[in-house]
Specification:
Strand content: 5-15%
Number of domains: 1
Number of strands: 3
CATH architecture: 3-Layer(aba) Sandwich
Mean pLDDT: 96
CATH superfamily: Response regulator
Bound molecules: 4-nitrophenyl phosphate
Strand order of the largest sheet: 2-1-3
Length: 157
């Protein structure tokens, strides 16, 4: 890849997991001096324009991540053109993206946790659970973000 990839993180509502992934990854990329474009979106638009969930913000802020400027939006057709990597949080998000993505861009879509070597394949939806779920989401996102950064660095060499 001759340029740093533009990366889109995707979950269902775009208020818990994908904004957390966005906040964590942009922090780690900046710290590593990697100038990537990042964004996040939901497969559903029912929280349109909402700020990230307060529970996600509390858990992430306590670990030093910044959620400013993030507002929920739904994935749009243009995203499949614009982004080089489209990273859904779970298998449902993956299937929903595959359903609407043009064939020529399908190769851009892969589970975010495919960049980690942990046992989980998906970041579980924390919305209806407690604070522990949000901590676990961050644990998984931090692992996958580190793996994704290594992947990007290796591709640039
Ligand atoms: P997210 O979590 O997909 O990680 O943003 C959810 C947010 C909202 C809902 C479900 C999951 N909801 O049903 O409203």
């Amino acid at each position: 890849m001759s340029h740093y990839p533009a990366i889109l993180f995707v979950c269902l509502g775009n208020i818990c997991r994908s904004p957390s992934a966005h906040a964590v990854f942009r922090h780690k990329a900046k710290a590593a001096g990697i100038n990537v474009t990042t964004d996040c979106a939901g497969t559903q638009g029912f929280h349109k324009n909402a700020k990230p969930d307060q529970r996600a913000v509390s858990a992430g802020t306590a670990r030093g991540y910044d959620f400013s400027g993030l507002h929920a939006r739904k994935v749009v057709a243009d995203d499949f053109e614009k982004f080089d990597l489209i990273l859904p949080m779970d298998h449902t998000n993956l299937a929903d993206l595959i359903d609407v993505c043009p064939p020529e861009h399908q190769h851009k879509i892969q589970l975010f946790l495919s960049f980690s070597d942990c046992d989980e394949e998906a970041v579980p939806d924390p919305y209806y659970g407690g604070a522990k779920g949000f901590e676990y989401v961050l644990d998984l996102i931090e692992l996958a973000s580190d793996g994704l950064l290594e992947h990007i660095k290796a591709a640039k060499q």
